[in-house]
């Protein structure tokens, strides 16, 4: 059947979005909701695909690779600072660090005046992983968000707050790495 005569559900995904010539207000709310759902699927699939590539290539999860890259960029960083850099809860960062220490990718040293605090250092095995890991180390979503202009980010932030409110989503989930979802 020619493409223009195929039923809507039989068309490739790329041709399913509304025509750019059609005004946005003309779409029925159900059509708009379906389009937004498809966009979320595209975002989630892009993120999932990247993390699968990372895992397949280096045998570590995306959050672990991001943590390794942060330790490489900031030798001597503490666990609390690492948690802030990755924007995750400190207990989550502690678990990442523990796993990386067990795999001999990083080491935790107690140096300097305050011997209670640990300083993290990258080991050669961690450096080898980073050489093989596909970029971006932070993940594709944080990288894409960084490239958006400030106005778009503010609008997206406001709209996502409304969606989160509608979902009744758990606020604690905001501090879990996406790679672990």
Report on this structure.
The structure is a single chain. The chain is mainly alpha-helical and 181 residues long. The chain has one domain: Orthogonal Bundle (Arc Repressor Mutant, subunit A), CATH 1.10.10.10. The chain is 54% helix and 4% strand. A two-stranded antiparallel sheet has the order 1-2. Helix 2 packs across helix 4 and helix 2 packs across helix 5. The chain is elongated, with a radius of gyration of 21 Å. 18% of the residues are buried. The model is unreliable at 1-21 (pLDDT under 50).
Helix content: 40-55%
Task: Say which CATH homologous superfamily is assigned.
Answer: Winged helix-like DNA-binding domain superfamily/Winged helix DNA-binding domain
> Strand order, biggest sheet?
1-2
Question: What is the molecular shape?
Answer: elongated
Overall number of strands: 2
Helices, by number, come to: 7
What is the CATH-assigned architecture? Orthogonal Bundle
**Low-pLDDT residue intervals, each spanning 5 or more residues:** 1-21
The domain count comes to 1
Strand content: under 5%
Classification by helices and strands: mainly alpha
Which series of helices and strands comes N to C? HHHHEEHHH
Largest sheet: 2 strands, antiparallel
CATH C-level class is Mainly Alpha
CATH topology: Arc Repressor Mutant, subunit A
In whole angstroms, how far apart are the ends?
Answer: 40 Å
Radius of gyration: 21 Å
Mean pLDDT: 84
List keywords for this structure.
181 residues, mainly alpha, Arc Repressor Mutant, subunit A, 7 helices
């Amino acid at each position: 059947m020619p493409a223009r005569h195929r039923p809507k559900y039989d068309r490739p995904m790329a041709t399913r979005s509304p025509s750019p010539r059609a005004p946005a207000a003309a779409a029925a709310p159900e059509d708009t909701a379906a389009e937004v759902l498809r966009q979320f699927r595209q975002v989630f699939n892009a993120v999932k695909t990247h993390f699968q590539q990372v895992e397949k290539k280096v045998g570590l999860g995306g959050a672990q690779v991001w943590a390794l890259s942060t330790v490489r960029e900031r030798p001597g960083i503490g666990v609390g600072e690492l948690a802030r850099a990755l924007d995750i809860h400190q207990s989550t960062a502690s678990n990442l660090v523990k796993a990386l220490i067990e795999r001999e990718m990083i080491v935790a040293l107690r140096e300097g005046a305050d011997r209670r605090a640990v300083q993290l250092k990258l080991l050669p095995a961690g450096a080898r992983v980073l050489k093989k890991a596909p970029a971006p180390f932070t993940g594709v979503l944080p990288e894409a968000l960084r490239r958006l202009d400030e106005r778009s980010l503010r609008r997206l932030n406001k709209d996502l707050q409304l969606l989160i409110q509608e979902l009744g989503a758990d606020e604690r989930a905001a501090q879990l790495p996406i790679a672990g979802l």
